[in-house]
Write a structure and sequence with these properties.
Order of helices and strands: HHHHHHHH
Radius of gyration: 21 Å
Strand content: under 5%
Shape: flat
Largest sheet: none
CATH architecture: Orthogonal Bundle
CATH class: Mainly Alpha
Structural class: mainly alpha
Length: about 220
């Protein structure tokens, strides 16, 4: 009965893990898209600034970024507002994992935009499209098709990276598995359960990514 109770807690923690990964991926795709656009604009100082920030995030360990946001920003905000400011483990995880995802996604999006046939853009300009219309109707749909494989790989990496948020107290799947293992002294059983759950999530994710890829390429023959 005790084991069943711990399994239930691990399943509840799995929901937290999936929510964390989804929120971080959405935030990261926004960051990546903005980063790719900033790296492509002709304003040199803005382009170099974006490239430098992406370089720094890509060069730092994920755990260090998480600790900086969870502990560093809490300390900074507390000094600024003269009272203790608490940053939730979930919010810190979304911010840290989202920034990491976004730093890599920026390169994926940048390559995807470069892969678009220049004639497509010229045709949109000839038809009198505004910059926004050209981006939403011509560039983004085609870039999405090119970016999907890379974004899919980043999503799978992100799913596994969610485990580091356990270190700042988030009650995710790995945290619950760790608690169950230490309480029952059966680490193999509960870490095996966590491993199986991760494999199930990644397997389902790959199926969904495949469906999205087919949908994005439905007009390509």
């Amino acid at each position: 009965m005790q084991i069943n109770g711990f399994i239930l807690q691990i399943l509840l923690g799995t929901v937290v893990t999936i929510k964390l990964a989804c929120c971080a991926a959405l935030f990261g795709m926004g960051v990546g898209l903005i980063g790719a656009l900033l790296e492509s604009i002709p304003i040199r100082w803005l382009r170099y600034t974006a490239a430098s920030i992406i370089f720094i995030i890509r060069g730092l360990p994920e755990l260090l970024i998480l600790f900086f946001i969870y502990f560093g920003l809490a300390t900074l905000f507390s000094k600024l507002f003269h009272h203790y400011v608490d940053i939730s483990a979930f919010a810190a995880g979304v911010a840290a994992l989202g920034l990491i995802f976004g730093a890599y996604a920026a390169q994926v999006f940048r390559g995807a935009f470069l892969a678009i046939d220049r004639g497509q853009v010229e045709a949109a300009n000839a038809m009198g499209f505004t910059g926004w219309q050209r981006f939403t109707r011509v560039q983004m749909p085609q870039a999405w098709r090119h970016a999907l494989p890379g974004l899919g790989n980043l999503w799978l990496v992100l799913l596994k990276d969610t485990a580091i948020v356990t270190l700042v107290g988030l009650t995710d799947m790995m945290n619950q598995a760790k608690m169950a293992a230490s309480t029952t002294h059966q680490p193999f059983t509960f870490y095996l359960i966590a491993a199986i759950i991760y494999l199930v999530i990644t397997s389902v994710s790959q199926k969904i990514i495949h469906i999205f890829t087919l949908q994005a390429n439905r007009y390509i023959h």
